[in-house]
Protein 1
Amino acid sequence: ERRSDIRNVAIIAHVDHGKTTLVDALLKQSHVFRDNEQVGELVLDSNPLEREKGITIVAKNAAIEHRGVRINIIDTPGHADFGGEVERVLNMADGCLLVVDAAEGPMPQTRFVLRKALELGLYPIVVINKIDRPNARPAEVLELTSDLILELATQEHQLDFPVIYASARDGYAGTSPDVRGGDMAPLFAAILERVPGPECDPGAPFRMLVTTLLYDSYRGRIAVGRIRDGAVRPRMAIQRFAHDGGRGSFRVGQVFGFRGLDRVELEEALAGDIVAVTGVPDVLIGETLADPSVTEPLPSIALEPPAVKMTFRVNDSPFAGREGQFVTSRQLRERLLREVETNIALRVEDGETPDQFIVSGRGELHLAILVETMRREGYEFAVTRPEVILRDGPNGREEPFERLLIEAPESATGFLIEALSGRKAQMVGMHSGEDGRVRFEFDIPTRGLIGFRDVFITGTGGEGIMNTEYLGYRPWAGEIGRHRSGALVASETGTALAYGIAAAQERGILFISPGDEVYTGMVVGLHARDNDLDVNVCRAKHLTNIRSSTADIAVKLVPPQPPSLEQALTLITADEMVEVTPRSIRIRKAELN
Ligand code: GDP
């Protein structure tokens, strides 16, 4: 049974593509506010740190009323997933709005969240926003967005998504890219028609997964989530399934729903509703609240283990206290423990001395955000350099790896390849856009990412975008800092070929010889498909600073024989010499010298 009076929609957008303005326009045009009521501050607005880092850190909710249907808009964190938050938040939704700037197009930061949304089966609606911009290129942006959905979709229906063109700033939307006026009604219509109402069994006993926590100085901790089954009412008896396996009995205090950006007190809420519940003081994110008759909690989202740690220490230097407020170890400890309550991927342990705490998190960025947030709150303390957390696997030492997604101007290609090969990154994909920008995917040990963000920002002149996704533990990738090199030799007839790539991540130079001439270029990507190997080569002008680090290149010809897909992929990933003979080689961007 599906409810028709409610829609739960996640909103996915790159920072600055207009998420806030869009939700604001929807709120203004819905019946949440009386005509003379001020909408006030732009809603869902990112905090300054989010804006600086180009990522969204915290998820928030808004509810909009349209034609008797309540639309819950669920904000999603834009970038790094610090502990299953993205998945938990998306779990509340049945559909998603993917907001894309009509001039900029889809950005790699949104890819991760979109992929998760599609994996969870959410129905997508593409909103091409800022259609009023003079440099808007809606047709191209739609194509790029469709490509992305095509690549990530997990279900048939997701490929048949509605497209709405909008100017959130001017408050209109339409189904044609030529729309220049009107209101948001077409977007409301798309949400009502294309996002299914929540599945619910109102007769079942109450169950709700706690997705986020709110704090209130009077009420303490407030659990927010979507009701899966049954109903919840104030003063109702419930139980909490704690993470540690324990179960406790509680009585619900108040039940709140959302109206606009406010909370409103409810006498009852049903399966499908997103609510905030008081009365369970120690509840944690990911736990289940349920009717006392329930025996099984809802599936919680598995937490990825922390990959990076650093030590926080009371700053006892004589200069401490000049800028921030001097903190004692007790204050520091209390602040960190408070953080752990909501920042669930974070761990805090006591350090070697009473003034030290070891803080572990998902990655350098995760910890850097905490450090920065605390500093902005006025805490003064010292931190050590972040270190990865190693572990012993069945075959020896293992370390955490990430998938690194990069988008950067093509001119930064040489710099990136060099910087990353030195950090043990292996390229797994590369795509040159028409817009003069390249998109790369690398697998890289988390260790190799430490300090990379700054190098990246400088090296791409601030024009690059990077994003990481956690892959898991893999065998230790070796010491960072040494360069090895390899080469691939190819001829256009496909007979000549390949030379061993000593450690594919450092595969350096491509020699291509149509006829007798030898061309050199930097291999920046290999894609194997059936018996074809697509080789992406960057322009010779980027080669200058690479030659030096790829000095000893041996060249060998091997007899023609098409490689299997596995062989071709081995070329990309193996840590030893391999020989490959693609039947044909296609060269993109081949401006070689
Ligand atoms: P968010 O980071 O995704 O929440 O983006 P915002 O809603 O804060 O918008 C970022 C910037 O884009 C702001 O300066 C907005 O005024 C502007 N903006 C948002 N929507 C539109 C639009 O439809 N047209 C134009 N021209 N600008 C817009």
Note: The radius of gyration is 26 Å.
Protein 2
Amino acid sequence: KRRIGVMTSGGDAPGMNGCVRAVVRMSIARGCEAYGIYEGYEGLVQGGKLIKQMKWSDVRGWLSEGGTLIGTARCAAFRERPGRLQAAKNLIVHGIDALVICGGDGSLTGADILRDEWQGLLKELVSNKELNQDQVEPFKHLNIVGMVGSIDNDMSLTDATIGCYSSLSRICEMVDVIDSTASSHQRAFVIEVMGRHCGWLALMAGVSTGADFVFMPEKPPSENWEAQMCSLVSKHRKLGKRKTIVIIAEGAQDRSLNKIPPTKVKDLLSNELGLDTRITTLGHVQRGGSPCAYDRQLSTLQGVEAVQAVLDATPETPTPVISVIENKIVRKGLIEAVKATHEVTNAIKAKNFDRAMLLRDAEFVE
Ligand code: F6P
């Protein structure tokens, strides 16, 4: 019986529990055993009680749960070879030769390094006399399959990361809540949203709530953005709008790559336009809580595909990442996806903003 490990890594995202549930149940349905690796890479390195077999009923009710019930952690030890050696030993001791990981690009790249080093690690375990040849013999290859879990929607070669639509819905709900109090007092609000280096949450929240102005890292505003924003906001006010909503991505920057702080936007709205302005940082309310229907569906379909990808893999198959493209669940090369993602950040760093928007498939934004 094959034993498939499942773990979540990096920042939690709504839908991660749906991934674990789908991987556990699909593994069992396909005659395999499923193992939960708790606390992300920490569990892989520490082993012991942090690696547990999971049965069908262990994941009952997990679809609607927020966060990740098997935990996640940032693990420095796994970044070093001795940590990965320990991880390899723990996998073999538990009889696990395939790992399905739901996390961001960093977490998935880490897993691929383990796969690359696998044979070398096994040799080292034998030569260190930590395991004998008979123990390592059945574990010639390690299969890794990635699923992208992140609220940021910052991975290339997939249309949506698991969690991004739940986060977007929460942001919209919160902006609606702010709308009513803003309108009552005719106030302006500068609302900061998460997303790290990616402006997807900010942009989509702006479109979905009819915000007056959006700041995002991939498309910094024009050089004279201060005057442009003020004239747009005052135009909207003249048209009868009783409130002003400016959405600012946490990674927002100007064309010289200097961070645009929400306080700067607030000061402009207050001092130039005389608007009573408040700043709201939405913070982790965007990340926790129950997944929306789309993320429940996406995590389930991708979890099923991930197990199928494990069963289909040959030693030559490059590590796949399960993506969704034009509403189809597909497999892409993990390394290609990570490379394409880094290209966006490189384009931003090189101030090639048109290219960054093109790579993000958002070239339609004016
Ligand atoms: O990647 C998800 C994310 O929520 C980002 O949007 C944000 O920048 C970061 O994680 C916050 O991380 P932490 O919860 O460790 O502060």
Note: The mean pLDDT is 96.
